[in-house]
Amino acid sequence: MEDPEPGRRLRRFTWEEIRERSGRGSPPQERWLVIERKVYDISRFCRRHPGGSRVISHYAGQDATDPFVAFHLDKTLVRKYMSPLLIGELAPDQPSFEPSKNKKLVEDFRELRATVEKTGLLNPNRTFFILYLCHILLLDVAAWLTIWYFGASTVTFLFSAVLLGTVQAQAGWLQHDFGHLSVFSKSKWNHWVHKFVIGHLKGAPASWWNHLHFQHHAKPNCFRKDPDVNMHPLFFALGKTLSVELGVQKKKFMPYNHQHKYFFIIGPPALVPLYFQWYIFYFVIQRKQWVDLAWMLSFYIRFFLTYLPLLGVKGILGLHLLVRFIESNWFVWITQMNHIPMHIDYDKNEDWFSTQLQATCNVHQSLFNDWFSGHLNFQIEHHLFPTMPRHNYWKVAPLVKSLCAKHGIEYQCKPLLTAFADIVHSLKDSGELWLDAYLHK
Question: How many whole angstroms separate alpha carbon 144 and alpha carbon 156?
Answer without folding.
Answer: 10
